[in-house]
Amino acid sequence: MKTITTIFAAFAGLVFFSSCSKQIYSHKEVMQSYHTKNDVIRQFGQPDEIMIVNDTTGWLYNCSDPSVFNDTKTKVKVNGVFNAGSGFNTIPVSVKQFSQYNKYVKFTFNHDGKVLNWDSSGLNFAERKANPLATIGVVAMVVVASAIVIVEMDPWKIGAP
């Protein structure tokens, strides 16, 4: 029985620590890949709110409402996907102070339209790639571990005198 417990613990650890996908770009790397207003519009569409302070322009995207992001072609997803390319005719609201949302993305641009900085909350835009070899490995380990458990239990001798 000790062998079965050891095998089960090893198998559980393998499944827990293995992944069927691999992170390609972190959230920070994805966000830093947007350099201009056009890059941001191409990915996120028009902002929900715009705030102009001195020579900078801030854009806020409310990501708390999943219905806004359905049926789009962008890779960046939060409870669906953002409104870029979706045909939404969103007209940004000009504000003196941004509204508070649990999930949001903010960009600040200089007068030339270059991204000065960004901020986000409640989101993870890390890009992942499927890792089929890891998936095959996990399935193989499940089969092998199951076979070992069956052999260790020796079901053919259960109840034998």
Q: Quick summary of this structure?
A:
Helix 1 (2-17) runs antiparallel to helix 4. By secondary structure, the chain is an alpha+beta fold.
How would you characterize the overall build of this protein?
It is a single chain. By secondary structure, the chain is α+β, with helices and mostly antiparallel strands. It is 32% helix and 22% strand. The protein is built from 4 helices and 7 strands; from the N terminus they run H-E-H-H-E-E-E-E-E-E-H. It has helices at 2-17, 27-31, 37-44, 132-153, and strands spanning 21-25, 49-53, 56-62, 93-94, 104-109, 115-121, 127-130. The strands form 2 sheets. A 5-stranded mixed sheet has the order 4-2-3-5-6, covered by helices on one side. Strand 2 (49-53) and strand 3 form a beta hairpin. Helix 1 runs antiparallel to helix 4. The longest helix has 22 residues, at 132-153. The two termini are 19 Å apart.
Question: What tags apply to this protein structure?
Answer:
4 helices, elongated, five-stranded mixed sheet, alpha+beta, 22% strand, two-stranded antiparallel ribbon, 7 strands, 161 residues
Summarize the SSE layout with pairings.
Elements: H1 2-17, E1 21-25, H2 27-31, H3 37-44, E2 49-53, E3 56-62, E4 93-94, E5 104-109, E6 115-121, E7 127-130, H4 132-153
Parallel strand pairs: 2-4
Antiparallel strand pairs: 1-7, 2-3, 3-5, 5-6
Helix pairs in contact: 1-4
Structural class given helices, strands, pairing? alpha+beta
The overall strand count is 7
Structural Rg? 25 Å
Query: Which strand order does the major sheet show?
Result: 4-2-3-5-6
Element pattern in H and E? HEHHEEEEEEH
The description of the largest β-sheet is: 5 strands, mixed
- Described by the principal axes of the CA atoms, the overall outline is elongated
Number of helices, counting only DSSP H or I runs of 4 residues or more: 4
Relative strand content: 15-25%
Helix percentage range: 25-40%
